[in-house]
Design a protein that fits this description.
Elements (H helix, E strand, L loop, with lengths): L4 H8 L5 E5 L3 H13 L4 E6 H6 L2 H14 L5 E8 L1 H10 L4 E4 L6 H16 L4 E6 L4 E2 L4 E2 L9 H11 L3 E4 L18 H10 L5 E3 L7 H9 L15 H6 L2 E6 L1 H17 L7 H22 L5 H9 L1
Parallel strand pairs: 1-2, 1-10, 2-3, 3-4, 4-5, 5-8, 8-9, 9-10
Antiparallel strand pairs: 6-7
The structure holds glyceraldehyde-3-phosphate, 1,3-dihydroxyacetonephosphate and zinc ion (ZN).
Length: 316
């Protein structure tokens, strides 16, 4: 069942965070639904501009509709990740997405407000909710590249003004995370002090963390042992998710970790089976491993085991 992120956040606020997982293909979608049902968790299916362009957005939408039919117990939101204004309007018009992210964070404050407000007005007119972003993460995003040195943490005072003036439904904040597999190359860590300040100014308001993959060292070692080269890859300590949730974070974005599972499975599979060439063989292993990864991640997020309570909450 597709629901808005807003509803999911109302149930989660202050208690746990919902996993927002980026998907690009069939195997990821099947593993995602299986893993969330195995762990009885609500979740967010996240589609980036790059994922929409990888084949054709219609394929992805069709696969998600099919998964909704095959797994009728699943409760999830369908969300556009890092949208620009035109892509947001396209998703709003499509009638399929329950939530869009407008990422105008690379623009100056006033421009970010103006762009976000236009998207919020268009989305709300159709009952769709909007995530916006303020501050700048380190690492590489789809359409903007910022060095760690230039990364700008979210200003708590600006966060309150931004939400008041745009009417956005949730806010992605920069507290030291960054996209990709190489986070914290220096001495960086999460700035919970900044998060706490933001929550103080926006009590009860749902916050979002991007760039929150954990980059498990076991995955990195296995990839490197199977002829990969991800030396120095490092991520966010997943044991910090619960603390973030207590401070108002209701959505935690995970993409890179799923890519690492895919890379490890396929590297190991073809290394140990050089004679094989049926794509379904590693595909089956990947689906099972991705489902296991999702279920484990949901334990860290606290979303595992919440499905029945969310179903009751939605009925009320
Ligand atoms: O934050 C970006 C996400 O990891 C999506 O990545 O744009 O390569 O699909 P992508
Ligand atoms: P990671 O690169 O840490 O997985 O972050 C993903 C993300 O923020 C998607 O929007
Ligand atoms: Zn992101």
């Amino acid at each position: 069942m597709i629901v808005t992120t807003k509803k999911l956040f109302e149930h989660a606020y202050g208690k746990y965070a919902i996993g927002a997982y980026n998907i690009n293909n069939l195997e990821q979608i099947v593993g995602l639904f299986k893993g969330n049902l195995d762990s009885q968790a609500p979740f967010i299916v996240q589609i980036s501009k790059g994922a929409r362009a990888y084949t054709d957005k219609v394929f992805l939408e069709g696969l998600i509709r099919a998964a909704d039919e095959v797994y009728p117990e699943a409760i999830f939101a369908v969300h556009l990740d890092h949208g620009d204004e035109a892509t947001c309007y396209d998703c709003i018009e499509s009638g399929f997405y329950s939530s869009v992210m407008i990422d105008a964070s690379s623009h100056p404050f006033e421009e970010n407000i103006a762009i976000t407000k236009r998207v919020v007005d268009a989305a709300h007119a159709k009952g769709i909710v909007v995530e916006a972003e303020l501050g700048m993460l380190g690492g590489v995003e789809e359409h903007v590249s910022v060095s760690e040195a230039d990364a700008k943490l979210t200003d708590p005072n600006q966060a309150k003004e931004f939400v008041d003036r745009t009417g956005c439904d949730s806010l992605a904040v920069a507290i030291g995370t960054s996209h990709g597999a190489f986070k914290f190359s220096g001495t960086q860590s999460l700035h919970f002090d900044v998060l706490e300040e933001i929550q103080n100014r926006l009590p009860g308001y749902p916050l979002v963390l991007h760039g929150t993959s954990s980059v498990p060292q076991e995955e990195v070692q296995r990839i490197n042992a199977a002829c990969g080269n991800l030396a120095g890859a490092k991520g966010v300590d997943a044991t910090q998710f619960r603390r973030a949730a207590e401070l108002g974070v209701t959505k935690i974005n995970i993409d890179t970790d799923g890519r690492l599972v895919w890379t490890r499975v396929h590297r190991e599979f073809f290394n140990s089976h050089p004679e094989k060439f049926d794509l379904r063989d590693p595909g089956k292993v990947f689906i099972a491993e991705y489902a296991k990864f999702i279920a484990e991640k949901n334990e860290y997020l606290g979303s595992a085991g919440q499905l029945t309570a969310v179903r009751e909450f939605l009925k009320a």
